[in-house]
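Private note to self, pasted from the team thread so I don't lose it. Backbone tokens:
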């Protein structure tokens, strides 16, 4: 496949999806450690960059160990988007710029950003072309949904437009904007997009297991996949996927102790980055709720996570949870021991 993005050459890259409030620098690096091939920042307001807003600029921060990494921009003004993209390239030199044409959130759509541009192809075209021209030869990619709603599924047309604009690769989430994250992702439409264009197409939606990724890799012309919500509760899914694609064998989830080590490290680094431990740990509560999924005694854990305010709180909960799990394991083991005379 002829592409300006080298990670597609003779490979099937696994992307970490950009998720607002989730894929900050700390979490991206955790996922990279577990095997994510390509990272993308949380979406960044092009208007904020254009106006040199310092808070916006914080979202652009990444470390060299995260490469290859792209900065994702959203906006609807082609001139401002182009200038913002040039500023981003000058400031942080990402490996690519990514354009958000898929976000379903009301506050983004209300400003004609994100998935709103799926029903405004002239503006989408002007934005894509302006950014591609502004940062050339740096590659520009894009992420879309399959359409605005069930009556306007136009992903193939949008993909063809974006390819003509010079977009180097396209991630397609298999839901409409109206669906949000409900219902099932329509991989038939993702496949239609992949057949319609010559640029790499990355499939996204309902990839919660290595088996599902293997299934999608086998579909014609799908060049890679993007993992989103599954990584929020299990960043080690990247390691499991890589193992399964390489060997055809399923590897178990990490031991409970390793999962807790990852959570505590995430909290510790998040607190260091914020410089205010209590504020940082309180901000981590929603992330801890996601981590608790598929943990033993998950409901009880979630109740405890609602009140954490320090790293010591998290460490205490981990210690108690591991002790309880060990006791239960010993009890189960004793229950199945053979009777003795």
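Design output:
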């Amino acid at each position: 496949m002829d592409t300006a993005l080298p990670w597609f050459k003779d490979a099937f890259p696994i992307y970490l999806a950009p998720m607002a409030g989730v894929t900050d620098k700390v979490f991206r690096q955790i996922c990279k450690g577990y095997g994510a091939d390509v990272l993308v920042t949380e979406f960044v307001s092009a208007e904020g960059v254009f106006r040199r807003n310092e808070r916006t600029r914080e979202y652009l921060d990444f470390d060299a160990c995260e490469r290859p990494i792209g900065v994702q921009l959203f906006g609807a003004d082609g001139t401002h988007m182009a200038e913002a993209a040039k500023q981003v390239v000058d400031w942080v030199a990402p490996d690519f710029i990514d354009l958000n044409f898929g976000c379903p959130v009301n506050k983004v759509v209300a400003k004609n950003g994100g998935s709103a541009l799926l029903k405004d192809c002239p503006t989408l075209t002007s934005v894509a072309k302006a950014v591609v021209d502004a940062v050339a030869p740096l590659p520009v990619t894009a992420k879309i949904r399959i359409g605005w709603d069930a009556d306007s599924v136009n992903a193939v047309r949008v993909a063809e437009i974006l390819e003509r604009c010079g977009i180097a690769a396209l991630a397609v989430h298999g839901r409409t904007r109206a669906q949000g994250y409900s219902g099932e992702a329509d991989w038939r439409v993702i496949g239609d997009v992949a057949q319609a264009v010559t640029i790499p197409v990355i499939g996204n939606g309902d990839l919660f297991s290595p088996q599902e990724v293997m299934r999608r890799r086998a579909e014609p012309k799908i060049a890679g996949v993007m993992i989103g919500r599954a990584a929020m509760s299990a960043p080690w899914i990247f390691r499991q996927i890589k193992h399964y694609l390489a060997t055809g064998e399923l590897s178990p989830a990490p031991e409970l102790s390793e999962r807790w080590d990852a959570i505590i490290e995430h909290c510790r680094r998040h607190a260091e980055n914020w410089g205010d431990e209590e504020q940082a740990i309180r901000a981590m509560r929603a992330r801890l709720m996601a981590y608790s999924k598929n943990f033993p005694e998950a409901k009880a854990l979630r109740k405890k996570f609602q009140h954490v305010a320090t790293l010591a709180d998290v460490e205490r909960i981990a210690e108690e949870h591991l002790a309880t799990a060990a006791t239960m394991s010993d009890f189960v083991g004793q229950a199945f021991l053979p009777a003795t005379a």
